[in-house]
Amino acid sequence: MKNPIEHLNKIFDSRIRLGIMSALMVNDEVSFNELKELLDITDGNLASHLKNLEENNCLKVQKSFVGRKTNTTYSATKVGEKAFKAHLDALEKMIKSIE
């Protein structure tokens, strides 16, 4: 029997990283506060998952100022998009293979 989880990407195992990448796949960029509100998680929790995705080259970070406040936005990299699509394909194949 073939291992049904062998092609799943461990980077996207967390439901939070899955949510972050889903948001970034359908938007050009998303701010830290938008992600925080969308996923309903704490600053620290979101920051640690964003750092993990950044270290794995799945997203890029842009920092700017809006007035005197910092504004940090995130967007998916080509590497991140490719890895996430491959992960979703693996999930779909796994689901279809289970009868």
Automatic annotation (TrEMBL):
Domain Winged helix DNA-binding: 16-95
GO biological process: regulation of DNA-templated transcription
Gene3D superfamilies according to UniProt: Winged helix-like DNA-binding domain superfamily/Winged helix DNA-binding domain
InterPro entries: ArsR-like_HTH, WH-like_DNA-bd_sf, WH_DNA-bd_dom, WH_DNA-bd_sf
PANTHER family, sorted: BSL7504 PROTEIN
Name used for this protein in its record: Transcriptional regulator
Organism annotation: Filimonas lacunae
Organism classification: Bacteria, Pseudomonadati, Bacteroidota, Chitinophagia, Chitinophagales
